[in-house]
UniProtKB/TrEMBL annotation:
Residues 102-218 form the Phosphoribosyltransferase domain. Signal peptide: none annotated. Belongs to the ComF/GntX family. Gene3D superfamilies: 3.40.50.2020. It comes from the Bacteria. This is ComF family protein.
Amino acid sequence: MTQISFFSRVLDLIVPRACPSCERRLAITEGPLCAACNMSLPRTMHHLQPFENEMARLFWGRIPVEKCAAFFLYKPNSTSSYLIYKLKYFDHPEIGEQLGQLVATEYESENFFDEITALLPVPLTYRRTIQRGYNQSIEIARGISSVTGLPIITKAIRRKTFIESQTHKDLWERNKNVENTFELNDAAKLNNQHVLLIDDVITSGATITAIGKELIKVPNIKISVLSLCFASDK
């Protein structure tokens, strides 16, 4: 243990780590966020009521879901929104993995992952993945998997078409924008699974609903949802 700590300290001197939110140098005991940014992260605490919370209610009457939770609230022009912005648009896939580890560590202690059998990241089109260089939802899932040991399923469902960004659309436009966008690619991988859909940001729930409508075609499947953040339309 002492040896690991020694080499960690040496590495930290050679290649200093920075907080991805405020960009301040991290202390050896900090990570992935500095203590100040970690404390100020607007956590939702959804995992304490995973069957009934603001995000879970988005899916009532739309698709059958088990547990739902977002790690923190997305607030425009905040340090927390900057994290997501850097993850998606500034070539920082490591932020997704680090935050995945953080949320998994906190939620595992509350048994959130009990009965989940696999992680299912929201897919991107091949074109978007090539443009970005990675799928941020897969990076988040990698972090969660490293803590929980849950397997990641990546090719059982695919996104057929490249859609416009959902960012500036209203609820009706968001739903229309993702209609018939996803299709099952290997349903056998999902038989009898309780999958945890992984996304970075959920606002209207339109994307998750579109995926869910495909997933319920699979025999004996259960669906739960976990995102890094929830951007309420309210």
